[in-house]
Amino acid sequence: MLPECQPQPEPECRVLSIQSHVVRGFVGNKSAAFPLQVLGFEVDLVNSVQFSNHTGYEHWKGQTMTAGELQTLYEGLKLNDVTRYDYVLTGYTRDTSFLDKVMEIIQELRRQNPKLVYVCDPVMGDKRNGDGYMYVPENLLPVYKGKVVPLADIITPNQYEAEILAGKKMNTEKEAIEVMDVLHAMGPDTVVITSSDLPSALGDNYLVTLGSQRKVIAGGLRVTERIRMEIPKVDAVFVGTGDLFAAMLLAWTHQHPNNLKIACEKTVSALQHIVTRTISNAKALAGVGKKPSAAQLELRVVQSKEQIENPEIIIHATTI
Q1: Is the CB of residue 143 less than 8 Å from the CB of residue 187?
Q2: Can you tell me the distance from the alpha carbon of 320 to that of 318, in angstroms, rounded to the nearest whole number?
Q3: What angle do CA 180, 185, 190 make, to 5 degrees?
Q4: CA 264 – CA 269 distance, rounded (Å)
Q5: How far is CA 273 from the centre of its chain?
Q6: Cβ neighbours of residue 159 under 8 Å, at least 6 residues apart?
Q7: pLDDT per residue as tens digits for the range 196-251
Q8: Torsion angle, CA of 101/103/109/110, rounded to 10 degrees?
Q9: Is 243 a catalytic site residue?
């Protein structure tokens, strides 16, 4: 009689995503969960805030989770022994005690799984008309510098966030590389500056994305791969694109752990498909000559499922 074969469980990759949530629209966890799920990840969500909609609307209502409430949720997971994660993804938060608690949890999760990868979008501010400004309390910056970035494996700041974390301005590609090297020295092996106003050879209508990844190749040699991408500007203000970027970068660096160029090309190309689709639909909804509203500019994430799963590479990276 043949021995009975033990059925093998399906492999899974599980992400704990701690971000904001909105009832209507796509920011935070609403923006991150769908792409990760269609790309095959199990996603467990902690909603740091729950709002009716994002704060770019004229009105919004909702609640904010406290550090104590986060601890209660985490204790529930621990009691059921369901706290083994492959990735943690974090985004927008306004509270230092909440951020401190998230770092405690990540350290505990990493003791359980030393291979856990922490992807951090250090959402703090942006540039407007050339000037940087913070839209979170300034006391979050030392927490990010002292606790968050040193724990992270992958970070996705915009230009302003990269500059305030590194304590250096970047007006040229050389200065941008210096900023990324400072951020590497703080901890993360992968740094992607999602958007910058560095000069583009293609003209003023392009944003520049820069990436840098430290890795060990055959023979134990440590090298740094650096890439640059030129992205066409779109004449609209979108909310949730950074959350979407970080989630898709997590997915594609998982698929291509030693090829930042391909991971960024797939991430940026998928995002560009979504943004292009969104602005086209928003203009159709608004009507000729009218400016689309915040509601009309909600990202067309679900409708872009095919481009998320199998992005056509429309924006190529160059090695620098």
Answers
A1: no
A2: 6
A3: 55
A4: 8
A5: 17
A6: 127, 170, 193, 195, 196, 197, 198
A7: 999 999 999 999 999 999 998 888 888 999 999 999 998 888 999 999 999 999 99
A8: -160
A9: yes
Helix (H) or strand (E) holding 180: helix 173-186
Amino acid at 123: V
Which positions ≥6 away from 83 have C-beta within 8 Å?
A: 74, 77, 108, 109, 112
Structural contact between residues 43 and 36, judged by C-beta atoms closer than 8 angstroms: yes
Beta partners for residue 118, in sequence order: 88
CA atoms within 13 A on the CB side of 98: 21
Can you list the pairs that 128-135 forms with residues at least 24 positions away whose Cβ atoms lie under 8 Å? 130/197, 132/160, 132/163, 132/164, 133/160, 134/164
Q: Where is 134: in which H helix or E strand?
A: strand 131-134
- The predicted model gives 107-115 an average pLDDT of 97
Mapping DSSP to helix (H, G, I), strand (E, B) and coil, where does residue 163 land? helix
Burial code (b: 16+ CB inside 10 Å, e: under 16) for 77-98 equals: beeeeebebbbbbbbbbbbbeb
Burial classification of residue 165, based on how many CB atoms lie within 10 Å of its CB (0-12 exposed, 13-18 middle, 19 or more buried): buried
Given pLDDT bands bounded at 50, 70 and 90, which one contains residue 1? low
Paired tokens of 45? 């969500």
Which among 263, 254, 252 has a CA at the least distance from the CA of 229?
263
pLDDT at position 161 over 70 = yes
| CA–CA dist 92, 79 (Å, integer) | 27
pTM exceeds 0.90, yes or no: yes
Tokens of 59: 């009105």
Q: How far apart are CA 36 and CA 41, in angstroms?
A: 5
**Which one is catalytic: 86, 197, 235, 243?**
243
Q: How far apart are the first and last CA of the chain?
A: 63
The owner of tokens 């602005």 is: 279
Taking residues 257-274, what's their average pLDDT?
97
